[in-house]
Amino acid sequence: QQIGMGFPLLLLGILRKVGSESIAKRLQRALELQLVEAACGPLRSRVEFESQYQEIMHGLLLRSGARAAEVAQGAGAALRIGLALLALRAQQASLLPHARKALQQAWEAIADYFTHREAQTPARLQSLLQILQRTQQQLAQPAGATPPELQQRLGGLRQALELQQQFFIHTPSVTASIRYGRMPTR
Fold first, then answer.
1. Secondary structure (3-state) at 183
2. DSSP state letter for 95
C-alpha cells in the first residue's frame, strides 16, 4: 500500500519539475518575443509593454526556483532593453536620416537575434554588441546632432546585454549547465 501511494507521488514530483522547466523556457521565450516586438513591431505605449512584460516576468520568477536571483537580474536587464527600445523608437523620427537608418539596422539586428533562439550563441551576441557600438558611434556624428539621452539609452541597452549575457545565450551547453546548477565557463 505504501509503495502504491509512494510511486504516484514520486512520479508526480518528477513530472511537476519537468513541467516547470518547460514552462520557464516558454516564459523566457515570451520575454524575448516582447523584445522583438519592441524592436520591430508596432510602437506600443510604455505602460502596455511594462504590464505585459511584468506579468510574464512574474510567472518566470515563480518557476525559477534556486535560480531566482539570476533570472531576476536577466529579466530586469531585458526589461531595461525593452524600455530603451521603445524610447529610442519614439524619438527616431526626430533624427537625421543617417541616424534613423543606423537605428533601423540596430533594431533589425536585435529582432533577428531574439527571433532565432537556436542561434543565440556567444559569438552572435558579440556581433550584436558590435553593431550596437557602431550605431552609437554613428549617432555621435555630426557632433550634437543626436540628443545625449538617446546616446545614453543606446549605451544602456548595450550594457544590459553585455552584463547579462548568460541570460540571453541559449546554446545547449549553457542551458544544460544552468539547469543543473552550474555556471557556464567562458
1. coil
2. S
- Cα first-last separation, the chain: 51
Residue 71 corresponds to which amino acid? V
How many angstroms separate the CA atoms of 8 and 16, rounded?
Answer: 12
Cis upstream peptide for 142 (omega within 30°):
yes
C-alpha cell at 83: 524600455
Angle separating helix axes 2-40 and 97-115, nearest 10 degrees: 160
- C-alpha–C-alpha distance, residues 154 and 140, integer Å: 11
pLDDT digits (tens, 9 = 90+) for 96-150: 888 889 899 999 999 999 888 777 888 888 999 999 999 888 888 776 667 788 8
In whole angstroms, what is the distance from residue 39 CA to residue 133 CA?
Answer: 17
pLDDT digits (tens, 9 = 90+) for 51-70: 999 898 888 888 777 888 88
Distances (CA, A) of 109 to 103, 120, 170: 10, 12, 17
Cα separations in angstroms, 6 against 10, 28, 149: 6, 33, 60
Tell me the three cell numbers of residue 159. Answer: 550594457
Q: What are the cell numbers at 70?
A: 539570476
